[in-house]
Amino acid sequence: MIYIITQTLNGLFSAALLFLIASGLTLVFGVMRIVNIAHGSFYMLGVYVAYTIVARTHSLFLGTLAAVSAVAAAGFVVERLFLRRFASQPLAQMMMTMGFALLFRDAAFMIWGGDPFTLPYPSALRGSIEANDIVFPMYRLFVVFVAAVVGVVLWALNEKTLIGAKLRAAVDDAEMAAGTGINVALLSGLVFAAGAGLAAFGGVMGGPILGGYPGMDLDLLPLAFVVVIIGGMGSLKGALVGSIVVGLIDNFGKALVPELSYFTLFAPMVIVLAIKPTGLYGRV
Amino acid sequence: MKEVPVKLSTSVVVVVFALLATGVVVGQSAASVPIKVGFIAPLSGPYVQNGRDILNGFLLYLEEIGYRAGGRQIDVVVEDDEAIPAVGLTKARKLVERDKVHLMAGALLASSGYALAPYIDSMHIPMVFPVVSSDDLTQRRRSKWIVRTGWTSSQPNHVFGEYAARTLKLKKVATIGLDYAFGWESVGGFQRTFEAEGGKIAQKIWCPLSVHDFAPYLAQISRDVDAVYALFLGRAALQFMRQYQEYGLKDRVPLIGSGSTTDEHVLPSMGNEALGVITALHYSAALATPSNKSFVAAYRARYNKVPSYYSESMYTGAKWFVSAIEARGGNVEDSAALLDALRKVKLADLPRGPVELDDYGSPVENVYIRKVERVNGELQNTVIETFPKVSQFWKYNPADYLKQPLYSRRYIPPPTE
Amino acid sequence: MAEFRQIGWKASVPTLVIVLLAAVPPFLSSYWVGLLTQIMIFAILAMSLDILLGYTGLPSLGHAGFFGVAAYTVAVLATAYHAGFWTCVASGIIIGTLLSAAFGLLVSHVRDVYFLMITLALGMVLWGLSNRWITVTGGDNGISGIPRVMTGPITFYEVTLLIFIGCTALMMLFISSPFGFTLKGIRESESRMKSLGVNTWLHCYLSYVIAGAFASVAGVLWAYYNAFVGPTYLDLTASSEVFLMVTLGGPGTLVGPALGAGAIVLLKNVISAYTQRWLMILGAIYIMTILGAPQGLWNLRRRSRSRA
């Protein structure tokens, strides 16, 4: 029982990180149909930028702020200068993001070198909570909480605000939305920037535990794609449900059948695809 | 705008032809005065840090001797294998068939080592493996043209298993390690001698190389073991130490492990979570011998960081083949004689201590038991015990040893022991 | 020689290329012969993806999966079961093809960018298996020690050349057959083909399986060429590199992707010897291809010729 509770909590932490990454991926896909291979790079750049700022200012808050805004700005520029001109050409856009994934990886290597590092813990969140032999680190609990807050904010933005209404219109039918006077181009840029920022935020949140290292850009990207495919491409609710499903399956799979841990993860995806190709909450 | 791409396509064609042309030229000019040494290590990708340490050690030694040996200039061709065996093979082909190197050195991962071996044997070019520790390269799948100057994965762990039972008085140990040859062979070696001394490996947990979140594995560690044996390297070692402490395990179950887990390539990035961890390896940067002290000082002066075992390995590897070249009076064109000379080298004043090769071509050398301590504000692997002249077969008879299968992921020690 | 003429509707150029490829080895160092071998293997792979991507309009981002599975089949049979050469070759191709037949059932009703995502995911399933199914695949160690066949690079080169010619001829026949024209029709307008009574699902499915079969041939060759297999043969990077070969060369031309494969293999081997910034250059190639020649170099050349 203790084992199941602990592994469930671990699974929720994985889900929280995945949600931060996958929500941006799915939004970008929903609005622009971009399969963004460079999304993992934004996750990586987030923790690297934060590392530099934290080393200078010793402030995790400033580091987070700088990472999210710098990476969001980079995302905005990439979208504006390189992706927009290929609007509704998903192949060209995907190739483009692939190119940027390689560029970012090499750039990070050039700037920061290859030494791995971790971010410091926020001092208030050191240590772990213990109850009846269940040990769970405070910081991981905090990340779950933060991801939940982000989820609520995203939901409120999407459902309760004008931007959200425009966004939903654009997801449903970009041409129609443009016809009703929505600035789809600007909206696209903002969504892409927001997606990049969310991924960077995910990187920073994982920073004290996972840190930064060469190759991390491709570590979580496959899982994030699985989340998006299971949940339904373009659906925020899908990203949430998908993250939890994938986070839990991934943790229990690794613990119970380590030999086939990848298979346990991808099998549900294949089943979902066979039954409902658009994913659980996807619309086409 | 429309014209640019057309030019682009013509220029690609031109480049292709130019490349083919140079290929022909390079193919024809073979004889050269300097000695050409090919070097392969990961200089990008996830193991770049280890690769760079290897390269640093290599260049440091060559600089010390002014890139000269046996009266000839040494030219170095450095190649990056990205820690991908297939890329390593491609680079080895390039070094041998295009650059016409006289010998090669390098490689990091066991998988690269095994992938390179058949090719090297087919081309008859000696290669020095200073790091790759896959047991079978000098045991059941011996390669004629590969000269190992490093170690076998199980070598320090045979020593350590016995030490853990006899000196540390451990009875029950859980192991957690990376799920590939290096992990299996290290843990297997530890298990064999530890259980022979009456200890018991209660659990073996394997993590894929891509592991970053250790939570699902840490939750499985049984709380009633006396110690946890951990085997990681690079960023995984850093993350593991962090998370071991994060889950409150550090205060409950002492940590021991493979030398790579606390090796100096990653130790400076760690914090107090690494304190007190006991490991075994054939090197420590904290060794107080004169030759190591001068090596560490030179390395620090040159690269502004502490050398890792990877740095020392390739420093020694370079010294090794340079001694062989000296012994051959600079004649490297006769590769069979060079190979012979490489196998006969015997060095006493290496940073790690004296080394010579056994009949199977694997180093006989000291193994050090090390404990992480903080000295002058810096973490180091303090040597707490030295086992001299350890062979890859430990105390076993080589012939009997080789009848046993290679340590695998599900290794169970033979009942007779 | 007669068969060359059969495929040569524009006989002179292909014949010249074949004669050149057959005649050059004695004049090149073994290194360049090796590179040419690599180029032909990847050209088969790239052309097989072109059947899907260029002719049928189905962008597969998991194509290296079949290549890798065929290579693993050879490696496992040759090392763990000591199977003979022909058993290994046949099994590699059959298992790769059967796998594409199975995956085809899952993807053949999906189109466009969804096809991209799903094939990407399926490719990752295969990569995950190669990486984690350690008892069979050796995990990250990969499998080495595949026995060398046709020792001496020249003879392996010649066999590869023959297979390359054979595969190219078959693929050309395939795409110029009525079936191939239907595929192009589906690419242009699936609804129109449907209204003409064409079973578009079946056409897409068969196209997927055939592409998988040729990818398997390339995989078998690659396993023997390197005498080693590992998980990187079928990861996302591998799949996207094949994708780049096709896009760079020019989708829907077969010749273009083959040249694209040649360009990438050469750049990879030659440029990386001179610079440590190889990744950045490769990234720039992706971006410049899309910016400068979105239809690929071969199509560009064709267009400029028709304009002139």
Could you walk me through the main structural features you see in this protein, from its secondary elements to its overall organization?
The complex is a heterotrimer of chains A (284), B (417) and C (308). Chain A has 284 residues and is mostly helical. Chain A has one domain. Helices cover 74% and strands 3% of the residues of chain A. Chain A has a two-stranded antiparallel sheet with strand order 1-2. The model of chain A has no long low-confidence stretch (mean pLDDT 89). Chain B folds into 2 domains: 30-151 and 288-361, Response regulator (Rossmann fold), CATH 3.40.50.2300; 154-281 and 366-403, Rossmann fold (3-Layer(aba) Sandwich), CATH 3.40.50.2300. Chain B contains 12 helices and 15 strands. In chain B, α6 links the parallel β7 (172-178) and β8 (200-207). Residues 1-31 of chain B have low confidence and may be disordered. With 308 residues, chain C is mostly helical. Chain C has one domain. Chain C has 15 helices and 2 strands. Chain C has a two-stranded antiparallel sheet. In chain C, α4 (64-79) packs antiparallel against α5. Chain C is globular and about 55 Å long. At the A-C interface, α4, α9 and α11 of A face α6, α12 and α14 of C.
Task: Tell me about the largest β-sheet of chain A.
Answer: 2 strands, antiparallel
Largest sheet of chain B: 9 strands, mixed
Low-confidence stretches of chain B: 1-31
Largest interface: A-C, 48 and 43 residues
Query: In the CATH hierarchy, what is the class of the largest domain in chain B?
Result: Alpha Beta
Helix content of chain B: 25-40%
Structural class of chain A: mainly alpha
Separation of termini of chain B? 77 Å
| Count of helix runs of chain B | 12
Give me a quick take on this structure:
The complex is a heterotrimer of chains A (284), B (417) and C (308). Helix content of chain A is 74%, strand content 3%.
Main attributes?
heterotrimer, A: 284 residues, mainly alpha, two-stranded antiparallel sheet, 2 strands, 3% strand, C: 308 residues, 15 helices, 77% helix, globular, disordered N terminus
